[in-house]
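Narrative of activities, Objective 1.

The group set out to show that a structural description can be obtained from nothing but a protein's sequence at a throughput compatible with the screening campaign. Below is one input-output pair from the validation batch, recorded exactly as produced.
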Amino acid sequence: MRVRKTIAAIAVMAAGVGVALEATAPPAGAEGQAGGSAPAGIPAVLMNESFRGAELHYDFTLLGQAGLTNASGGDHAPKVGTSTKHDQEGARRGAPPFNPDPQANPGYLQLTDNNHDKVGGVVYNHPLPTSGGLDVTFEMYQYNSTTTNTPHAADGIGFFISDGGVDLTAPGAYGGSLGYAQKSFEGVPGVAGGYLGIGFDVLGNYIQDGTEGRGYTNGKPGVRRSPTGQAWGQNVANTITLRGPGNGLNGYEYLTSTYKTITSPTETTAPLGPKQLGAPTVTTPELAKRLVRVTLSPELRPLVRVYVEFDPSADSVDEGDLVLAYRMPDDVRAMPSTFKFGFAGSTGDMTDVHLIRNLEVSTLVSPPAGLDLAKDVVVDPTTPAATLPSTYQVGDVVHYKFTATNSGQVTLTNVRISDRFKLDSISPGSYDSLAPGKSETFIGTYTIKESDVPADWDGTSAFELENVALAVSNETASPDDHAFVTVDPPDECDPAAPGCVEEPDPDPSDLPEAIPLPPVGGTPSALGIAGFSAAAALTAYLIVTRRMTGRRVP
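Output recorded for this entry:
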């Protein structure tokens, strides 16, 4: 489901010149891939991850007890908590159960279930360009609290953006810091290289500074202070709050919030009122869905906009769903040239289920031209005499050649490939620089998997396997390019493989007895009857003696 809309013209000040931009949605890509090649003026889809299945389509790192609800086990499945204060009742209490059919029962990224003292997050530790701005959409679910008899459910969900040049392997402090900011009083650092943290705060601690030492530098409160009370019990539930750049135990200062109405040239916020970020008494996620859109304009001091559609039945976000707009101030660091990002959620003495689904990351506007990609299927370069197969089968290795060309006027840095598939290998991993007009090549391999087979495949005809990739640099990203291979059904299969049925050897006792042919010159009636009997015997023999090692059933 595509959370997209047309947003009214945004005034962007670039180099002192006002430029009117209309951010219109690009065509949605399929699961795990970018959208179609976009003409000038159309944003580029950088990532499309639904979290609905048992596997991740991009190289995310799951943290804490987070997992995919449709993963039955292993690293991708939700984990049991480690609380020493509260007993843990499994890894999915109150959350959607495992379902083996993601098409009929799509899954979620589970940050936490509703056990006490659960923590979970996910980070994407690969830089993406900011030159076209950012446009991030996702579905958020906070529901099914076990502590509805207390004043609040807890804690909330944090979405954060960090500097793409800094390694992102862990969130910030959990709890009231929502995985972005620090807890100075406990010595717990915030996100490394943090640029912006947005807290969708059901409990209301993220807005506070003094309870846990958020927004502090060198052990002292920062320049920008939260307008709320600083003591426990003075939290402001059901708020969306922005915190700024930080690293380690320093920074992450309060920027703005929906705590109160603000209207100024650089800021617009309003209390959410009766609209609730969570649905603590609801027991199924469908009734707790909130569609979220976050945009950052392509500027050194970007305009940040947050939209939330609170109607669980809605499938789009429009201008009327704007809840917060804020211009990043001049005295904080500029927007980095590349970014990384993540989500986090947690529970404590109070609980909620926290889920994310249908994430899409795009540029807000068409990125500057400068990088093109050509992707081709090639022979194995280690065997020069090989010829390119006309068809492939599951288990075969496909070799791809990626040619990245700098079509712009400036040198690109850290040029690399972002592929729909998790490639088995790619060489080299990146190029440090690519001068204007120059090209470089990458060679990647991918093993065709059973999971690549279409759900509606009949098992008897060939199908086309499409792979999509784009070239990415620290300055820009290319339009995507597609490569196809034809995958044939196997003539034989391993009887131990799923969907393979072994047929037994024929039993000699089942063979028909020989039927003598009539002598030449017999009567027409005798010849006809005998001839028909012989044909029938031959047909029966062929049927019985037909044997395959195995056949794959759809």
